[in-house]
Structures are given as C-alpha cells and as structure tokens.
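Sequence only, no structure available. Ideas?
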Amino acid sequence: MAPNREARLPTAWVEPFARGHGAHVDSGWDGNDFRAVFRGTRGQVQWELTVDGHLDTDYPATSALRCSTPYAGSFVVGGGSSQVASSGTEADLLFGALSAARSWWRGRGKGGPRPAGGSVAAGGSVAAGGDGGPGASLSLTDPDGVLTPELLRMLESWPPSTHARSARHDDRFSLRLSGGTLIFTTENRWGEAVTAHQVKILNAVLDRLAARSS
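Reply:
I predicted one. Tokens follow.
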C-alpha cells in the first residue's frame, strides 16, 4: 500500500522539507487522507501551513497558510481558472481560510459555492482584460501597492503538482492581507516544489511589508 500511496500522493518530502526550512511538522495518514501541519517563522512572524491530500481524486489537494503580521496594508489576489474576486471583508477572509483547507477535510463537501469574477486592477477598479504584463492573468485588488511586479510574476508561475487528481478540479490560489492577517490558500497544487514556492512567496511578501514599514 505504501508504494501505491507514494505514487498517487507523494509525502516522503514532508519531513525533509520541514527540516530544510527550520519548521516543525506534524503529519500522518487517516485512511486515504493525508495531512501535514508545518509551523515556522520568518523574522518575528510565526506562520502555520496546513496541507491536505487525498488518494481519492474526487477531492482536491488543498493548503492553507496563515500568519499574523504587525504590518499595515491590505490586498487580495487570486489566480487559476476560477479566480477569486473579493471585497476584502471578514466574510471573504473566512471563505479564503476555510474553503481550501477545511471544507474538503472530513466533511467532503461537493459542488459548493465557487466565487468567480473578472480581473481587478490595483486600487480596486475592474480591469477589462490584461496587457500581458506581470499580474495580467490574476484577479487583483491592491490599493496600497504592496505587490511588486516580481511578486506578481511569482504568483503567476507555479511548479507542477505531483499528485493524481480528477480532471474536474482546477488549480487555483488566493492570497490576501487584511487587518494584519495574511491568508494564502491553494487547491490542486501539491508537492515539495509547490510548497517551497508557497513559502518563498510568503517570505517575499513579509520582506516587502517590512521594507515598507521601515
């Protein structure tokens, strides 16, 4: 069973990844479901990243990274074939935190609401298409100008996932900052390279916020 599990949902990377990033991890299987919870730091900021995967490909792999920051500012950016457009309200934050890492865990909800919307330009205005520059493929609200072109390129370019999945599930992500809370969720992105990219983006965002506040 173990080789079959690894072929369909690789997990051997979890412990070495945690050691390599100076993080603590709790992980394990519960039937056909796998969960790993990483806890690490960036400077004075503590973060927690939960990744969930399933051997049953009817359920998408998900992740939810969350941390509290001392930095001012707000933004929301989403990507994937079902992009997330958001007003940045507490209800939106709750959806972002729960939909990717909780609604599919144990409860296994199907056919739930999937927010959709067009591209949103920095400052909150709706953009009629993109110009091909950084962030053109993303839905974005960034009134404070936090997200640099370099960060937008990182958000647009993800490593390939390493899990078996159903074709009916699309890749997507949501990254948002509001009230000092940073929430970064993904669906159908799995593996060491994907998780390293997610943490790299987190670190870059925190570094950007720290530079703006200095």
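The longest strand covers residues 33-42.
Hope that gets you unstuck.
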